[in-house]
TrEMBL record:
Pathway: Protein modification; protein ubiquitination. Keywords: Coiled coil, Ubl conjugation pathway. This is NPH3 domain-containing protein. Residues 313-334, 534-569 are annotated as: Disordered. The lineage of its organism: Eukaryota, Viridiplantae, Streptophyta, Embryophyta, Tracheophyta. PROSITE patterns: NPH3. Residues 534-553 have a biased composition (Low complexity). Belongs to the NPH3 family. Pfam families: NPH3 (PF03000). GO terms for biological process: protein ubiquitination. Residues 481-515 form a coiled coil. Residues 160-442 form the NPH3 domain. Residues 314-324 have a biased composition (Acidic residues).
Amino acid sequence: MQFPLVSRSGRIRKLVAEHRDSDISRVELLNLPGGAETFELAAKFCYGINFEITSSNVAQLCCVSDYLEMTEEFSKDNLGSRAEEYLESIVCKNLEMCVEVLQQCENLLPLADELKIVSRCIDAIASKACAEQIASSFSRLEYSSSGRLHMNRQAKCDGDWWIEDLSVIRIDLYQRVMTAMKCRGVRPESIGASLVNYAQKELTKKSSLWNPSGHTKIDLLSTDHERLVVETIVSLLPVEKLAVPITFLFGLLRSAVMLDCSIACRLDLERRIGSQLDIATLDDLLIPSFRHAGDTLFDVDTVQRILVNFSQQDDSEDDMDDASVFESDSPHSPSQGALFKVSKLVDNYLAEIAPDANLKLAKFMAIAETLPTHARTIHDGIYRAIDIYLKAHQGLPDADKKKLCKLIDFQKLSQEAGAHAAQNERLPLQSIVQVLYFEQLRLRNALCCSYADDDRKPVNHQSWRISSSALSAAMSPKDNYASLRRENRELKLELARMRMRLNDLEKEHVCMKRDMAKSSSRKFMSSFTKKIGGLSLFGHSSSRGSSSPSRQSYRTDSKVIERTCASTD
C-alpha cells in the first residue's frame, strides 16, 4: 500500500527508510500545506485516480508537491510539474483565475511566496489590467470632423472591469497588487477607483466601532483589521490630485480619527485634503470629535491643520523669484479663486461650530485667522459667525469681545450686514462706532457719485481712495502691489497738475501786488475782480465772500494726497 506514495514522494521515501528496521504503520506529516483534503488529492495522483486541476486547488497542489518532494527526480510527470504547468499556461493568462489563486494562497503563506506563486499571479494581474486599459483607450480613439485623431472622453471606459474582482483579496495581497499596477503604469484614476471600491467593502463595520452611549470601543479584532485597511489604503493613494473624490478622503480621515490610526496616516490625509480644499463642502469639514465628553462636538484641531496645509500650499505656489510678476495687471492671482471659495467655506464652518458651549475663543480665532487677509472680499460671513458665537457665549468679557471683533473689517460689510451690526447690542461700543463711521462714508460716497457727471467735486478724491482701498484689500499681495503702483502714478500726476496751478496763482499774485502799488483807483478793483474770476481752481466762478465745504474738503484732500505720495515714494 505504501509503494505508490514511496515511489513518487521523496519525503515519504525518507521517512520509510529511516524506520526500515521497524514495522511502521503510521507516518506523521506535520504542517502539511492544505491539510487532509490536499493530501487526499496527492494520494489520488500517486494511485492513478483521475481528478481535475483547477484554479481553486492548483496553489495547494503546488505547495503539497513541494512539501512531499513530488518532483521529476523521483518520478516523471510528477504532481509538481503538472501543477506548475497548469499555473503557467492556464492561470497566469486569466485575471479572474489569478485572483482566485491569490485567495487560496492566503492560507498557504509563506510557502506560496517562496514558490513564487503569489508574485507570478500579481505580475499577471498587473500586466492584464494594463493591457486591458490600453485596449480600452484605443477603442475610444476617433476622428474629429477635421480629420484629426483624438480621445473621446465621454465614451465609457471598459478597461476597469477588474476593480470589482480585486475587492475580495486580503489587504496585504491587495497592497502588493496595487503597487505592481502602479509600476506597470495603470492610470491613477483606475487605482483610485479600485481603492474606493475596496474601502467601501472592507469598512462596512465602521459604524459599530464606537459605542456612543458608553464611549468605549468594541470588537477589537475588527477594529485592528479596519485600522490596517485604512492605513494601507492611505499609503496606496495616488499622488495626483482628483484621483479620488475629496469626499472619500474625508471619509478616510474620519475613519482614521475614529480608529486611532497612526499620526503619519492622518497627517498624509490632511495634507491631501488641504491641497484641494476649494472643492470641499461644509458637510465634509464637520468631522465628529471622538475624545472625552468635555470636548467640542466637532474635531476643530484637525480642521485647523487642514487649513494650515491649504495656506502653506497656497504660499508655496505664489512664491516666485521673478520680481516682474508684481507688474502684472491681472485681476486675480492663480489661487485667488480657491481662496475665495475656502474663505466662504471657513466662514460657514465657523458659523456651524460657534454655538458649541465647549468651543474656546482661542480655537475659534485660530481657525478664523488661518487664511490670509486678502482671502475675504466681503466680511458678512465672518461677522455672522462671530455674532452667533457672541450669542452662544454671553458671558464673554469685553476684552475678549474686542479681540474677537478685530477679525471683522467693517468696511467690507454689505449694506444689510452693516445695518444689522449698527444695531447689534452684542458688539462692543467701539465696533459699533466703526460701523457707523463706515456707513457714513458709504452714504457720502453714494451722494458724491450722483453728482460726479455734472461737477467733479474734491470729495471724489476721498471716495476714490475708499473704494480703491477696498478693491486692494480684495486682491492678492501681487495684484495689490501692482494696484498701489498704478494709484501712486495717478497721484503723482494729480500732484504735478496741482503744482502747476499753484505756480500760476503765485505769478498772478505777484502781478496783482505790482498793480496795487501802481494804482489805487476803481479801475484796479475791476481788474482784480476779473483776474480772480479767471483763476478759479475748479474752472467755475465762485460766489464772493463764500467759504464752501467743498473748498475745505479739497484742501484737506490735497494734504492727504501729498502725504500719500510722499509715503509711496
